[in-house]
Structures are given as structure tokens and as C-alpha cells.
Amino acid sequence: MDNFTLNIPTKIFFGRNQIKVLGRQIEKYGATRVLICYGSKRIKREGLFQTITDKLTDRGLFYTELGGIEPNPRITSVREGVRICREENIDFILAVGGGSVIDCAKAIAGSVNYEGDPWDFFLRKAAINKAIPIGTVLTLAATGSESNGNAVVSNIETQQKLAVYSPILWPKFSVLDPEYTYSVPPFHTAAGIADIMSHIFEQYFSPTPDTFTQDRLAEALLKTCLKYAPIVMEKPNDYTARAEILWAGNLALNTLLSLGREGDWANHSIEHEVSALFDISHGAGLAILFPNWMKYVMDDNNTDKFYNLAVNVFGVAESADKKAAALEGIDRLRTFYNSVGLPARLSETGVEEDSLRKMAEGAVRFGEIGEFKKLKSKDVLAILKMAY
Amino acid sequence: MDNFTLNIPTKIFFGRNQIKVLGRQIEKYGATRVLICYGSKRIKREGLFQTITDKLTDRGLFYTELGGIEPNPRITSVREGVRICREENIDFILAVGGGSVIDCAKAIAGSVNYEGDPWDFFLRKAAINKAIPIGTVLTLAATGSESNGNAVVSNIETQQKLAVYSPILWPKFSVLDPEYTYSVPPFHTAAGIADIMSHIFEQYFSPTPDTFTQDRLAEALLKTCLKYAPIVMEKPNDYTARAEILWAGNLALNTLLSLGREGDWANHSIEHEVSALFDISHGAGLAILFPNWMKYVMDDNNTDKFYNLAVNVFGVAESADKKAAALEGIDRLRTFYNSVGLPARLSETGVEEDSLRKMAEGAVRFGEIGEFKKLKSKDVLAILKMAY
After folding, report:
1. Within 13 Å, how many C-alpha atoms sit on residue A92's CB side?
2. How far apart are the C-alpha atoms of B182 and B193, rounded to whole Å?
3. Which has the closest alpha carbon to B106: B172, B49, B158?
């Protein structure tokens, strides 16, 4: 176990009708002028937007809006948000949606007081050291972005999808009401669960030795996904199932699982390359890639980790042949993803085979990726081919 | 799952040599005059006190000390601390020790600006609404008090041991260096582990339905205790074992496990009555009580919880006879406590049999205790007799 600091500054208000805290929470930061960021019109159709604006108006808070933020949020939306913030003297950003909306809101918040172009942060030309406060209302279980300082944004012109981190980008508060996720369609629900599971895997498959407690916590959250995914696919309005998955998604990426160890974010890097070129769902991309990554990187030195996953999470029987049991676990993961309607191959999703090499090269643009196993361009290409 | 708010304001600095952050962290709160609270002279003998005062002096911070805080900290120590704080214009309290020292420091911090007697808070005659900031350096894995707003203090005159809670009593930061726990003697190490496991049980045995994720997280921490207790008893200087137990102890009572459900703190209430009359170790008292409480409260409606504990944590084979498996789990808990040298009966610890009735009455002075199963005085007496 490595040294670490536990510091979770985001307050989570979890459960039915927790939106009631909204106005008071925004006022805590001395804010009076709010930019509401959102993606699809679902939140208007279903009344959530009205509920939110009523709460703001009740307390005399000004608001304006930036809608239509894309599923893989674009730097152009960030620029537009910055423009509105400056024009309207915005002092608080409320992101209502999933990871894309929240990430876009973070990028806007960090760019308002920066003279250059927001894309500079993603190219590592500048560091975010000032941000206006943000809060979130989560409408999709997937991201974890509601409790961390990460943001991922796409640039269509340059065909890049890049990440930025700053401790000042953590939301001040996040409202997690499971009922707001009832209307997420089946495919997106499944893709969200795959995203959550990927976040857990990316911390579980760590090169750091002696992470017993952290591994067991990770397995606990994976069990939640496996237990409640079939229920939520069957009964989208099941409060308990939506709540358990929403809660697991938050814990999966609020930094708890990452404490005291290095993670391995290679799959996210690879998937970002895929969805930079083809507009496929992030979670679906990860569901395709992960079982293939697992098979590719498993070797005689790291079988134990895959064996533990198989036995502790996927219910594979204990066995002297650890490798066989580990492979059985990976197969069960694949079967699970299939069972919730996620694709098994990149070729099913419109990805073109002759783009794989470009993706592989893009993934390693800053050098080798991965920590559990270092991957070069040729390794990434091999995984992409297995996944095609 | 009930609605909840996740808000963990204490920063945890975990690992070797994290004491390096001390001065800067204290200064963050504008403090210049520090009261160092501690219990035994162990921290002086082993150099930790010197390390700490060097860090304070280096940054020009004034300090004075309150040593000799008792294992069940007394209200007289709180009063003495308050006197020193007022006399020396203390603006920060640093607790160096385990739960007793931290709890005493919290009670002092909350009483400095109160005109009445500190015991008023424990009798619920007054509420703590102002406190000077505190930080902690943990030297024992047990309490969880380094990451919450609870304090338990004893009054020898009135033979009471009572608890107080206030959100403003959360430490600003806590330093958790596993090496500081190397010299904890075997019995206290074991008692600390029993205390941690009791905290987990008291949240696990919840009457709230649908707590799947929370239950699996609790089981993860119990597994850590079971795995590393024998190692740490054998090799007290094993960094990994000390680290895993220290980390589990923190997570067991930093409110994470309690989110979304009611707990059942009956065993703590009962144990407080025992140790109010007889100076037995808190953890040892809990290790005696818990298996008996489990057997007493288990019935046909709640067998599943005990069955899950047996199968998921104690490795009991799955069985159609859930009750038998559950009882086997409780027996394994008892065997585990014996294996680390903890007593099995109150009669072994100097507790007098004719005091049991008084303890039972004291435990319910504010009404029935427990939520998983409500206990009246006669139930508490029955458990105490089983445990004698």
C-alpha cells in the first residue's frame, strides 16, 4: 500500500427529493447567477428543468442555460459556455446530466478566468488554477465525475479526446436522486453500468502490492453491478436497483478505490481514441475492450488478480488451475455484458477496421499507457484487433 | 436504502512519515497556540512527542501539553484541558493517541467557549455549537474517532460513561502512520481489532432493508480484520498488516458504512455500562458481548443477515439450513476472538456478577436500546448473564 491522502470535498445528497437542498447549497458559495448546463431535452420534457429553475427563482437566483451538450462533450461547447459566463457574469455552474455534461461544466468553470483557449488545458499547455464553483444534479449512473476533479472533452477538428484534472474542479455538491435515472433507456443504462465496472477494474488492476482492503471494496461494488443490472434492465423504475447502481457508480470514482495504489487507465485511453473517431457510446466501447485487454495482459505473474476476480465476484469455483478459473471469470464478464445488450465487437458498432492503427498510435501519443501492464502501440493494436 | 448525505470533512494523511504535513495543516486554520493531548508516556519514550514538537517549533508555533488522559477518558481531564486552553489562549488542539485521547480532545474543544460544565453536553443539558479546531495523530487502530464527530467520556463520580456528537467536532485532519502502531502491545492490538469489528457489526446489523452495497463494503472490512489480525499478533512490525488494519479501522467509523441505514449501537451502550463500573478494555468488553448479543437477537425473521455474515466473511459453507450456518458463523467469531487472546467471559475480567442488574438498568436509562432488535432492561440483563 502506498501513502495517500483521503480528501473528498464534494458533499453528496443522495435519495428521493434531495433536490430540495439546491438553492441553499448554491447560496453557501455566495453565488447569485447560475449557468445551468444540460445535454438532451429529456430533463425539460420530464419536468426536472422546471423543478430546478423553480428552486432557483424561489430564492431570487438568476439563471441562464447552455443545453445540447454532446454525449462526448466538445470543446466548442466549452467555448460557448465560457462566452455565456463572461457575458452574464455567471458565478456558479450547475451541471444537470451525466458525465459529459459535468465534464463540460468543469471545463467551462476552469476556463472562465483564463485568457487563452480552453483546449490549452487538455494539451497540457496550461494548468487550471482558478475555477468558479460548480454543483451537479446527476441523471445517469456511470461517470463518477460528480465526485472528482476530472474532465474529458473532445475536439472534432483535431480528432482528439483528452482529459484534464485539477483539485479545484471537484463539484461543491452533487444531488443523486435515483428517480432521475428511471427514464434512462436500456442501452444507456447498460453502457453506464459497463462504465462503472470499468472504473472499478481500472483501480483493481493495480501494479501496487498489498491492496487487500482496496481490492475487497472494489469487489463489493462489482457485486452490486452484477446483482442489480438484470433487475434494472427488467424493471427500470425499481428504486432499490437504481439506487444501488447510482451509489456504486459514485463510490467507484470518488477516489476511494484509488487510494494507496496506482491505477491502470489504459482501457479508457484506448476507448477515447475509438470514440474520438467514431461516435460510439463510451460504456459500450469499454465493455468491448475490457475482456480483450484482460486476456491480452494476463500472464503467469499476475494470474492471482484475475483469479480473485473470477472467484470473489463472478462465482467461479475455487480451483488449483488458477489460470483456467481466471479465464472462466473473463468469459463470465463477457457473458454478463452480452446479457444486458452490450455489443461484443467493435465491428458491430460502425468502427472501421482500417482506423485501428490510427487509434493505437493515438492512444500512446504521450508515451506507453497502462501500469498493470505497460502497453506500446503494437499492444494496443493487438487488443483492438482482438476486439474487432 | 434511506436518503443520506455523504460529507467527510476530515482529511486523512495515511502512510509513513505523513507527520511532515503537521505544521502546515495547523497553520491552515490560522492557529498559533497548540494544546497537545496524549495518554501514556509511550509517545515520549518512543520519540513521537519530540518529532511533533520539533515540527511545531520549526514553524514558530507555541505548544503546551495535557498528558495522562485515561483509557476511558474522564470528565476531570476534560475540565483540566479547558482550564489550560483558557489560561494559554489555545487555538488548536492536537490529539496524539487512540480514541480516548481524541474523544477527550473533542470534549475540550467543544467546551472551551461554553460557560457551564462540560458534563452538561453528555447529560444533553446543552448542545455543542462552537469548538476550536482539532487535529489528530493516531497511535492505535481501533476508534474511528479520528474521522467523526463523536466523543465518549466517563464520569467516575456518577459512574456514567456517555457519548456526545456534533458535526463541528470532526477533526480537520488526521495523520495515520502505521509505524506508530508497531509498539501497541498484543492485548491492546487485539482489543482494538475487536473494537473495529464491533463498529462494523453495529452498522451491518441494521433494520433498514436494501443495503446491499453497504453490506458488501462492511464485509470487505471484516475480511481485512480476519486476515491481518493473526499476522499482526505474530509480527507486530509488519507494515502491511498494521496499515490494512489501521485503514479498515478508519473506514469502519468515518460514516461511510452508516450511510443510508440505521445502525444498532446496543452493544456499545452495554459495554459503556460495564466499563463505567469496571475498568476493563473497551474492545475486550465488546469481544465478550457481541457473540452473545448475536445469539440472543437472532430469530426466524433476521437469520439471513447472520447467514450472510457466516458465509461471506467466516467462510462457512452455503447451506439450506441457514440457522445452523449462521450459528456456526457466530462460533467462528468467538473462536477468532479467543485466537487473538481476548477473553470470552465477563467473569474472567474482574466484573462482579451482582453488578449486572445495575449495568442493565443503566444501559436503558434513555429508553430501549438497539434498532436491529429493541432491547429492554431484561434483555440486556439476559445478554450480560450469557456473557458472564
Report:
1. 24
2. 14
3. B172
> Three-class SS of residue A164?
strand
Q: Indicate the burial class of A31 (C-beta count within 10 angstroms; 0-12, 13-18, 19 or more).
A: buried
Nearest alpha-carbon partner for B175 in B327, B3, B21: B21
Assigned C-alpha cell, A184: 434512462
Residue A232 included in any domain: yes
**What per-residue string of b and e applies to B149-176 under the rule 16 or more CB within 10 Å gives b?**
bbbbbbbeeeebbbebebeebbbbbbbb
ipTM: 0.96
Q: Would you call B14 and A6 a contact, using CB atoms and an 8 Å cutoff?
A: yes
B144 φ, ψ (degrees, to nearest 5)? 80, -10
**Which chain A residue is nearest to residue B238, measuring alpha carbons?**
A210
Closest approach of chain B CAs to the CA of A293, in angstroms? 27
Host domain of residue B205 = 185-387
> Which neighbouring-strand residues pair with A64?
A35
Q: What is the pLDDT of residue B251?
A: 98
Given a contact cutoff of 8 angstroms between Cβ atoms, the answer to whether B39 and B98 are in contact is yes
Work out the mean pLDDT of chain A and round it to a whole number.
96
Q: Is B307 found in the same domain as B174? A: no
Query: Sheet of B62-66: strands edge to edge?
Result: A62-66, A33-38, A92-97, A134-138, A173-176, A4-14, B4-14, B173-176, B134-138, B92-97, B33-38, B62-66
Q: Same domain for A153 and A271?
A: no
C-alpha cell at B38: 496524549
B36 contact A CB<8A: no
Residue A95, C-beta contacts closer than 8 angstroms, at least 6 positions apart: A37, A38, A101, A102, A104, A105, A106, A134, A135, A136, A137, A171
Domains: count for chain B: 2
Q: Do A210 and B244 touch (CB under 8 A)?
A: yes
How far away is chain A from the Cα of B160, in angstroms, using its nearest Cα? 35
pLDDT reported for residue A161? 86
Whether residue A344 contacts residue A288, with contact meaning beta carbons closer than 8 Å, is answered with yes
Q: Where are the alpha helices (DSSP H) in B61-98?
A: 75-87
Q: What is the pLDDT of residues A280-307, one digit of tens each?
A: 888 999 999 999 999 999 999 999 999 9
Cross-chain Cβ contact B14/A259 below 8 Å: yes
| Cβ-based neighbours of A240, under 8 Å, separated by 6 or more | A228, A231, B1, B210
- Which residue from A93, A113, A92, A88 is spatially nearest to A103, judged by alpha carbons? A93
Q: Return left, alpha or beta for A21; rule: phi > 0 is left, psi -120 to 50 is alpha, else beta.
A: alpha
Whether residue B333 has pLDDT greater than 90: yes
Residues B216 and B333 in one domain: yes
Detail the DSSP E strand segments found in A28-149. Answer: 33-38, 62-66, 92-97, 134-138
Closest-CA distance, A176 to chain B, in angstroms, reads: 10
Is the Cβ of A5 closer than 8 Å to some Cβ of chain B?
yes
Q: Is B8 on the interface with A (CB under 8 A)?
A: yes
Q: What is the pLDDT of residue A164?
A: 96
Select from B148, B212, B224 the residue whose CB has the most chain A CBs within 10 Å, as the one to mutate to test that interface.
Answer: B212
Question: Are both B300 and B206 inside the same structural domain?
Answer: yes
Domain end among B180, B197, B226: B180
* Pairs of CB atoms within 8 A across A/B: 103
User: Cβ separation of B3 and A16 shorter than 8 Å?
Assistant: yes
- Residue A72 in any domain: the answer is yes
- Among A2, A4, A3, A372, smallest CA distance to A210 is for A2
* Listed residue (B323, B321, B313, B142) closest to B215, CA to CA: B313
